[in-house]
Design a protein that fits this description.
It is a single chain. By secondary structure, the chain is α/β, with parallel strands linked by helices. Helices cover 32% and strands 21% of the residues. It has nine helices and twelve strands. It has a ten-stranded mixed beta sheet with strand order 5-6-7-4-8-9-3-12-11-10. A two-stranded antiparallel sheet has the order 1-2. Strand 10 and strand 11 form a beta hairpin. The chain is globular.
Length: 281
């Protein structure tokens, strides 16, 4: 039997409040929830993840690794950009980050989000082991305030519903999965590996004009996804920090290319020589 994970202490970024004027704890909690509802980067202070490489089961549950600057940067872009393409290296915490964004959006009542993977079983894994997991391990006091005292979510295969009526559904690839729905956000995971992605892209692109946040995320592979991110651009390519490049597509949409060197612990020019040697061994 798997030993249960331990809930880590909640973290609160309250450095902006001068110590003499800090409100009582209950007011501070309400302030934190209100701030988190308006700021996805701030919301990450309350998100927990699992470190699969940790040998000790009791130590696998860990806070979202916010300190690498690229994490907060990508989070800010996610909040700002309605149509986003994310070509990325492996093991950059992007699955956790995108799942956290869906939970953040679902704090608003009656928000309907989707995760699309090549296979339905993969989509279910993301709904259950990422989105539901993140919700479960939000601090209880946070959920109590954010959801008016209702803490329990309902999960069954590919379906997660929060007590405020918000939903996250997992679906397999294909352009017809979103018909008859009005999604608030769609995460298309590993889009470059979906055989039907071109038709899916054509079908759901108009949803972005209706307020639906679209996220197309994938590791590198020759594909229709690659053709889009490498299509003509508008303006110039920016590099806000090492390993991160951004540009606007000529036909609309924002690209955020995330290379492993964005993480100082993986960048051989900074602290990542040991990691690189291990990966190449």
């Amino acid at each position: 039997m798997t030993e249960p994970l331990l809930l880590p202490p909640a973290r609160e970024s309250i450095d902006e409040i001068p110590a003499p004027s800090r409100p009582p704890p209950h007011q501070l909690a309400a302030w934190a929830v209100d701030r988190a509802a308006r700021s996805f980067p701030f919301f990450l202070n309350f998100v927990s993840t699992v470190d699969e490489a940790e040998a000790d089961p009791k130590a696998r549950l860990k806070p979202m690794p916010i300190p690498p600057p690229y994490i907060s940067h990508v989070a800010a872009v996610l909040q700002q950009e309605p149509l986003l393409w994310v070509p990325k290296s492996r093991r950059m915490v992007m699955t956790w980050l995108h799942a956290a964004e869906l939970v953040w959006r679902m704090l608003q009542p009656r928000t309907h989000t989707f995760i699309q993977s090549k296979k339905e079983t993969d989509a279910d894994w993301l709904v259950k082991d990422r989105v539901w997991f993140i919700f479960q391990y939000l601090p209880d006091w946070f959920k109590y305030i954010a959801l008016d005292g209702k803490l329990t979510a309902s999960y069954k295969y590919c379906r997660l519903e929060l007590p405020n009526g918000s939903k996250c559904w997992g679906v397999a690839q294909g352009p017809d999965q979103f018909r008859q729905f009005t999604p608030s956000a769609i995460l298309v995971d590993e889009a470059a590996f979906q055989d039907e992605f071109e038709n899916t892209h054509t079908a759901i692109l108009p949803l972005s004009e209706k307020g639906c946040a679209l996220r197309f995320v994938s590791s590198a592979r020759p594909s229709y996804f690659g053709q889009i991110v490498n299509s003509p651009i508008a303006g110039t390519i920016r590099e806000p920090m090492p390993g991160v490049r951004q540009w606007q597509l000529g036909e609309g949409g924002h690209v955020l290319r995330l290379h492993y060197t964005a993480d100082p612990a993986k960048d051989p020019a900074r602290n990542g020589q040991e990691w690189n040697d291990h990966e190449r061994a």
